[in-house]
Amino acid sequence: MGSSPTPACSGKFLTMHKRRRKKLTTRSLSQDNAILDDIHHGQVQKILNRSSKWAFNAFTLETVAGGRSLPVFCVHLFHYYGLLDHFHLDVVHVWKLFTLIEEGYHSTNPYHNSIHATDVTQAMHCFLQESKIRQHLTPVEIMAAIIGAVAHDLDHPGVNQHFLITTKNHLAQLYQNMSVLENHHWRSAVGCLLESGVANQLIPYRDELEKQIRDLILATDINRQNEFLTQFKKHLDEKTLDLRKPGDRNFILQIALKCADISNPTRPWDISRKWSLKVCDEFFRQGEFERKLNLPVTSICDQQSTSIAKIQVGFFRIVVFPLFYEWHRFLESDLSNHMMNILESNRQKWEEQERKENAEETQTELSDAEPDISEDEEATKRSSEAISIIETIPPPPPPPRDIRRQSLAVPTLESTLGVRRHSVPVNMEQSLPRTIYRRESLPLNKGSKATVSPQTESRASSGLREEDEMQRFGSSSDISSSSPHYSSAEEQPERPLSAENLLPEPTIASMTSNAEVGRLSSVLQGNNPPAKYLTRQQTFPPPQPFMRMRYMSATVEMSTCKETVHEDSQSSSSQSSRENISANNKTQYTIPSIAVLSPNNSRPPDFLLPEGPAPQKSSFANNKRETEAADKEKVCKMVKLTEPGQRYEKENVDPRRTNGSLSKRRGSAPVSLPLAKPDENMPPAGGGMDSDTQSLRRGSVPIEIAHYQSYEDENSDPVINITPVETTRMFWQYQRRGSAPLDLPPLVGGGNGGMLDRRELTRHTSLNGKAGRRKKQLRRRSSGGPETVCLSDAHSETLSRLLLRRPENSDALLARRRGSLPIEVLTVGHSVF
Ligand SMILES: Nc1ncnc2c1ncn2[C@@H]1O[C@@H]2COP(=O)(O)O[C@H]2[C@H]1O
Ligand SMILES: [Zn+2]
User: Fold this and answer.
1) Which class of enzymes does this protein belong to (predicted)?
2) Can 93 be counted among the known catalytic residues?
3) Burial of 276: CB neighbours in 10 Å, binned 0-12, 13-18, 19+
4) Is 115 known to sit in a ligand binding site?
5) pTM value?
6) What are phi and psi of 213, to 5 degrees?
């Protein structure tokens, strides 16, 4: 790769960079290096053992799993449900599938990141355990439920559908403003299935599996909440659900995923509150983007006019309670009872918080209104002449607009919900059309004769409808009425900033041009049937040169699929919004307890962060877009490879193309090292390694993923058609040691002939904020993306069998190594590259 050619496509998709920002928890244990991994993985197993409990904390798993909670948990579930055995799946492909999915989540999103995916998947897992459900499920349905849950927000850009529509993101146009994000999520999920090779192993089930995943993910569009809720109520009222029927099971799984998706308010307070802060952080970040773009600020995204407590109170009441009420009616179980109790308790905490806020604001309002005594005294001293002068002066202009204050003197429902306070940049207030959310006109809802709760009456008397409130939690699917709605580009007011500069993920900002959008749309919609033309967009994975290398095989594979790959589009997506539901509030709430919120949960968006040292210029950064890209990369503190010709080759690069430049690479994957048979010449654990050994590992996959075959949980019963494997101990706990990645590249000045010893490495990964290159290298150890090593098929087979199929050999192999199992060893046997 000599002189750097201009890349064919300069679009950016920085997911994989950004995920590396995850912290390594074990840093705090740096004083005792030897036990790092032992503790670490013991904790992982402990958490997995409790992962059927509702008190599950995805943040904790993420921490102890070194940022890999998603693949760790999902592979665990595949083991647990016996899916690997049932479908004869290779864990290599399965691990790869979940690694790809994990990488598809943006770790820079405060909320819509892979931890949310883990959380939702765990909730789904709990629901699958419910006796009413589990006894009827088939293996394909269980697998679809897990994959659907974990991929349900895949490649979420951290802004909602409304934002994408408003900013004319190409995805919005591609999907005609309908379930824009959800369509993108499920298509990305299918892409990962293909990419990982799992789809190939499931050929007889593929159609059914993909359909189920699609149905599940599309159901998470909050704009369709009313549709599902009404149908669900009807089923329950008429007792028509029969889970022996596949259609009804499909429906219940859809409801289950919807519940799982918004289940954070039903988690124990500490966990629930954390999710609330994170989701509001993301909302407020979008609000900042909107402000920068001179767009009307979506009410729940407007930190100046609403608060976390207000959002939570509204969300609990309008969105969560109605759905969980029906879910509880259906399940009638300990779990559902438990969830409802927690929901109520959490609701009370937020309401108390909101009342406190309102009281404080009212107080401020009153004190603002009271004249200052000293001012009064001062005034009495004024001369009559002065007074007469004042009288001749026209009344002063109104004080600077403070919409929030004005509406808070007497707390009203409007102010509580923030509906009225749709803040608009001052300079646009007159000229911009107001956001008028489309009111979902679902016939069933209109005709519903739900009991009118006090809350509903209150809303009615204040001229509000629940659907109005509901809209605050999402966006309409109808662009013509839901966005600030410029019918054409010409009508748009001039924007001082572009969405491209402001979006949280530059990737979604690298939208296609209008021409490209038009072409995409015509490809998709012009001929029939539109959906056939796009299996997955080039947006996922990214259309960068280095990604093209990685994904080339997938492209080839996809080209053989029923659907044609369209390569030119780029990525994005976002959460969807909510439509109105007729919230049937049946509870009269009381407000006893107090919640304490951190005073300010906002943070400046990434693009406002103070800039660090200028990034090294690369030969590619010679046009504006690339310079911007470089800036963004800098802001996001992403590690880059700057060697000419290798700029785009991060850890995903084909190792054959790295010229053995280990020191230039972030990851610890073996590069261009000869591979010996794994069962020969292996060094003792913790001992010196030869290059062959080093080449075999990189320290990313927790060993138990490859190995652990069983699961014990007191709550879990076997699932029909699925045989959970039983065990009494986790042998790896006795066999594993080690912590630091063994294959860290030589470091300049590292002593020991260029090699850094373990203590030094650990020290450099401490939380002293002075992370240098070495810190990054160590951090990478627990978050490696899939890398490949070129092995002969024979070697691959051997390795794969040794590690995965033959416990006795695996034991021997594992006993000789420290650190975690190299993903490339797992993947190599089946690498499609
Ligand atoms: N605690 C919460 N407060 C407000 N909104 C939430 C909360 N939890 C989830 N949501 C919203 O509900 C949506 C469900 O679908 P998503 O996960 O795409 O995006 C989610 C958020 O927009
Ligand atoms: Zn979600």
Assistant:
1) hydrolase
2) no
3) buried
4) yes
5) 0.54
6) -60, -45
377 burial via Cβ count (<10 Å: 0-12, 13-18, 19+) = exposed
DSSP state string for 530-547: GGGG-SSBTTSS--SHHH
Q: Which two tokens stand for residue 747?
A: 């470091």
Contact 158, 108 (CB under 8 A): yes
Please name which ligand lies nearest the alpha carbon of 573. 1
**Can you give the C-alpha Rg of the chain in angstroms?**
28
Burial 551-564 (b: 16+ CB within 10 A, else e): bebbbebbeeeeee
Q: Name the residue at shortest CA distance from atom 19 of ligand 1.
A: 575
How many Å apart are CA 161 and CA 765, to the nearest integer? 39
Tokens of 765: 């990964």
Task: Starting from the CA of residue 148, give the closest ligand.
Answer: 2
pLDDT category of residue 363 using cuts at 50, 70 and 90:
confident
Per-residue pLDDT of 720-753, as tens digits, reads 334 333 333 332 222 333 333 333 333 333 333 3
In angstroms, rounded to a whole number, what is the distance separating the alpha carbons of residues 785 and 639? 14
**Closest by alpha carbon to 499, among 180, 184, 166?**
166
Does the annotation place 113 within a ligand binding site? Answer: yes
Phi, psi of 507 (to 5 degrees): -60, -45
Cβ distance 80 to 69 under 8 Å? no
Fill in the DSSP letter of residue 33.
Answer: G
Q: How far, in Å, CA of 287 to CA of 281, rounded?
A: 10
Residues 6 or more apart whose CB falls under 8 angstroms from that of 166 comprise 290, 295, 483, 484
Sequence-distant (≥ 6) Cβ neighbours of residue 238 within 8 angstroms: none
For 374-414, the pLDDT digits (tens) are 555 554 444 344 333 333 333 333 433 333 333 322 232 22
What residues pack around ion ligand 2 (CB closer than 5 A)? 153, 261
Asked if pLDDT for residue 689 goes beyond 60, the answer is no
Query: 737: which 2 tokens?
Result: 């040691």
Residue predicted with more confidence, 520 or 718:
520
Question: For residue range 552-603, what is the model confidence (pLDDT) as tens digits?
Answer: 233 333 333 333 223 333 333 333 333 333 333 333 222 222 222 233 333 3
Phi–psi pair at 575, nearest 5 degrees: -70, 160
User: Using CA atoms, how far apart are residues 159 and 285, in angstroms rounded to an integer?
Assistant: 8
155: left (phi over 0), alpha (psi -120 to 50) or beta: left
